[in-house]
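Apologies for my clumsy wording, but could you write out the amino acids of a protein and the tokens describing how it folds?
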Amino acid sequence: ASLALANAHLQVQTLAGLEEHRRLAAEQAALRRVATDVAADAPPERVFGRVAEEAAALLDVEAAVVTRFG
């Protein structure tokens, strides 16, 4: 019984680790897409739009807003 519990615990830890890696990979991919727009000298409206889209996708919400002051 203790071996089964240990195996179950290891499986939970492994799945949690995989989910964390997936999240980090998604964040890095989003950052890369924003950086590509910046490197291409995209207009600020496009860059901020991309940031809002990527943030919404990462947060699993329908929309996000980026406000620029100044």
Summary: The chain is about 75% helix and 0% strand. The longest helix spans residues 2-39. The radius of gyration is 19 Å. Residues 26 and 58 are 7 Å apart (CA to CA).
